[in-house]
Fold:
Amino acid sequence: MYHNAFILSSSFQVLAENLTMVTEFLLLGFSSLGEIQLALFVVFLFLYLVILSGNVTIVSVIRLDKSLHTPMYFFLGILSTSETFYTFVILPKMLINLLSVARTISFTCCATQMFFFLGFAITNCLLLGVMGYDRYAAICHPLHYPILMSWQVCGKLGATCGIGGFLASLTVVYLVFSLPFCSANKVNHYFCDISPVIRLACTNTDVHEFVIFICGVLVLVVPFLFICVSYICILRTILKIPSAEGRRKAFSTCASHLTVVIVHYGCASYIYLRPTANYVSNKDRLVTVTYTIVTPLLNPMVYSLRNKDVQVAIRKVLGKKGSLKLYN
Structure:
């Protein structure tokens, strides 16, 4: 009897040793690319600086030019601010890792990175949905637009996007990091994303993954369907406008938003609306680069290059600064 108890006790000790809890993760990132990492560092650093300068320019111009103090640009300003922080959560660490041999990140920092990344990403998804509603209200109900999109309503919608985004993020992060992580700690990605991290858990993750999938549907599919319905109504209204110039002007206000929506929702849906077992590191990493770098880059470029109001405002602001320098 004592002999059996000793064997059982020894078995539990061995099991406990094998189930050593992970205290840090190793971000593999682009380590398999060898010397190409230096070239990637230069490219990503340049793109990161362009993203920062582009989004800061848009936020500054919207704030300084009173002609842009409208609901559409109010939400664009929030989106640009959110995307600035969104890239800040991922890209600096990725740039450091491209030049570093030690690519470790602590368990707590990994959870924190995922929380803020998902928080800002989901906020962006919800904001794009709200911006779709704003275009619907402006084009389909122009007479009621001041009431439908009053500053009080805009403030509440903006706050709801932020609070909703971070509550959804908190739920997902809790579901991921409440799982036990044992000996495996190599994250096959350049940041702590859901699929690469949850694959390291040393238990069955089906229930957690299903709940995360439902969260993904709520924050991706629902806003996207809402945008689609809004644009169907917008298209019907635009087609009723008698003049070609009127139709062109009405659609041009939507083109920039629609471009960002297609890229953002397309890439995010491809990554998050499928089982973790289907995660393919190299291909998925390329798609992730698109929505973590290209989309935040696309947003200021599309809205500044395609939007005449923003172009005029930028020239106006730069003109004022130039005249002040000459005066001084």
In short: Confidence is low (pLDDT under 50) at residues 1-18.
